[in-house]
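Protocol step 6 of 9: fold each sequence in the batch and record its structure tokens directly after the sequence line. For illustration, a two-sequence batch is reproduced in full.

Sequence one:
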Amino acid sequence: MQTATIHRAWLTYTEELAMLGHGLPLWQPAPLDNYDKIKIGDVGYIRQGRFHLLFSASMPQGGRILGEDVPLDFVPFEPGPTAKDQPRGPGALHARYIKQIGAAFNISANATCIDAGTTFNFKTSSTKGAILMTKYQTFCEDAERWGRFEDYMRQHYQSWHDHANKLGHRVKLEDILFITGHDMTRDFDMVAFSSDSKEAGIKFSAGIPGVGSATTAAWGTWDSSISVSRNFGPQPRDPPGDLQLLTYNTHPMDSFPKYNQCVFLRGYRIKRRARIVPRVIRAAAGPHDLGSGHRSDKEDLQAEWNSSSSDSYSEILMDPDPPFVDPLTPFFDYIFDVNLPLCCLNRGEANS
């Protein structure tokens, strides 16, 4: 199999798996050095498919310093009880235009782990696509009391934005996420592709990590008739010493016993929205002036619009399937507060 360079693979992966309805897919599920796993109540942002933690709102202040480790107006947040779904079995999740051919060999319906020798065959009918493979089960958890998240974010979002940029993160207000749920597993192996061909075959074969593969951390191999971008893990981020290298090559998964690889997350963010009020309407418009009806036909608009912030409003707008603009947009419910609404990224609503 020929592996492509990462050509914004994180964006293709996010776009393609987003519509499965599990939440926001992460191209980089592994936690970073400043946190051991993503938790409900965390505040952060996504950049190139990776979650960057700003601070955890659900933890006591403890030794954290106001204005440095947490925002100046920080008060601990109590997320309340959570709901845990039945674990999702190991195997494949893939984009809508990819079909799995036949049943996977050597895997039962109640399996908790994919055994060596299991194979998955796929056929794609699109020029773009993505596949996520997990060897072990995936555990899903979500907050139950969303109102607490909405109220808390309304009170503090501006200080979160100020805090993030004071630390040099260079994020927009709309980038900040308040986490309400996540899907965790132990490992991952994923591919994303964008090619000129609409039809291609892709195969994943599970094996023993470090055996029969040039990549020691991989627990399987991919074969494809097109070039794909691949990411797998978890992997150590620092070069190992000689003794560590010997141990890692022999038992690579022994160093990663935790279910802390976040493959999907859900939460709230801010969405800018102001009331648009017609101010002057052209009275002489005839049938020949009506335009195509598309919002993009600016030259055909029959009114001048006033979007002053004084005309902003508060309401809840359910928007489960808006036009796709960026990787976050399709998941959000809009909860308006003054001219800055909150948006909720929820599981299962992208396809409702």
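Sequence two, same batch, same settings:
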Amino acid sequence: MTILNMCRPSRDFYDRVMDRCDGSIPCLSDPVRRSALGLKVALVMLHLVYAGALFLFDGDLIGKTKKEPWYTSLYLLLYFATLVQYFVTSGSSPGYVIDAIRAVNESNAICKGTLAPSKKPASSKNGSVVVTMDSSRSGLPGNLTSWSKLVMDMYPPGTSIRTLTCAYCNVEQPPRAKHCHDCDKCVLQFDHHCVWLGTCIGQCNHCKFWWYICEETALCLWTGILYISYLKSNLERAWWKVGIMILLLIILSIAFLFLLLLLIFHSYLVLTNQTTFELVRRRRIPYLRGVAGRVHPFSEGVCKNLYNFCCVRETSYKMEQLPTPQQLEEKSKPYTCLDVLKCRCC
């Protein structure tokens, strides 16, 4: 009881401080936003600790900076570019279904005012539709809305619209979309929810995420090289400095291995036009359940996959139609020497 009574004043003081912060800073009132903000601060502090220890302990690096300023300038450029890319990615939209619906409604409202209704269905090559470019669905018969009709065209005939409706958002999900319980929204081409970024990774920010982990991996590698160079030339100096640098280097090595594996994994997903959710939960997704594991239904070849991944605009929402059985059968055929010469994989 004595210990509890001694801790109670500090606990009350902490509660009062948090209540005051919640009132002055609205984002701290939400526990999810508060934890995401805490992770962002922790990640920035981690970067500052590694760079600070390097410039604080390594006198040779400072001397090298005076002789060859370009070397340190390039390192600092990568350092700040990585942090900027982190905040750009964390603040970007993954491509929410609700935003795509709003884009369809705005497009249809513009078409109704400027264009005559057209009965020609909106589709493009390979069965994909870019919502912001879709301007021919201004006159839709029946009781289906523009979005519902657009989504139904992505699925095989006879598919019930009830099976496509999200139980949480109550919106029709196009293929490859999934509801994220952390964001409480449906995401187009849902990959995963990144805790460190505090946002989902989807169609519109997957490219930004790839570039972030690429820059972070390069930064870890370069920082590790600088740490090893310091230890080689300063191993006989103060033991506590060497101990701190060795401990930081061990943690950095683990982070580098994790980031390198993550970069390789997402590069594979990009080249095959897959998402983490589709690869891990393949048997739980109805339209992928009967497809062989070596078949990538949405892949259009390495070159086309790279182009679609790198050149997608954040303001456009591309929805891919489910492949037909004939297309799946064609993709399931093993590669021959002639296919390689014809660049079938590209």
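Proceed to step 7 once all outputs are recorded. Observation for sequence two: The longest strand covers residues 128-130.
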